[in-house]
């Protein structure tokens, strides 16, 4: 749940908040669960490291 530069990735549901849920166990992982049929999108972002890395952004879409 972090980048190669050690920046934590912040995950959130950006579309379909009633379709899927994220949970954050104490071990530092991120758990994803579809709670009903539909489509949802989650987005992960991490801040830039000046002079080394640009901001990290990734999006995933799921359909059930």
Describe this structure in words.
It is a single chain. With 64 residues, the protein is mostly beta strands. The mean pLDDT is 91. 0% of the residues lie in helices and 47% in strands. The two termini are 24 Å apart. It has strands spanning 10-15, 20-23, 31-34, 39-46, 56-63. The strands form 2 sheets. Strands 1-4-5 form a 3-stranded antiparallel β-sheet, with no helix packed on it. Strands 2-3 form a two-stranded antiparallel sheet. Strand 2 and strand 3 (31-34) form a beta hairpin. The radius of gyration is 13 Å and the shape is elongated. The chain has no helices and 5 strands.
Give me a quick take on this structure.
This protein has 64 residues and is an all-beta fold. It has strands spanning 10-15, 20-23, 31-34, 39-46, 56-63.
Topology (elements, then pairings):
Elements: E1 10-15, E2 20-23, E3 31-34, E4 39-46, E5 56-63
Antiparallel strand pairs: 1-4, 2-3, 4-5
Q: Let me know the average pLDDT.
A: 91
- The portion of residues assigned to helices is under 10%
Question: What's the main sheet like?
Answer: 3 strands, antiparallel
Contiguous helical run count: 0
Name the poorly predicted regions: none
Which strand order spans the largest sheet, edge to edge or round the barrel? 1-4-5
The count of strands amounts to: 5
What amount of the residues lies in strands? over 45%
Write the H/E string, N to C.
EEEEE
């Amino acid at each position: 749940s972090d980048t190669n530069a050690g920046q934590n990735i912040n995950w959130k549901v950006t579309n379909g908040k009633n379709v899927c849920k994220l949970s954050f166990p104490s071990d530092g992982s991120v758990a994803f669960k579809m709670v009903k049929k539909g489509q949802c999108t989650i987005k992960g972002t991490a801040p830039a490291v000046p002079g080394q890395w640009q901001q990290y952004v990734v999006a995933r879409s799921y359909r059930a």
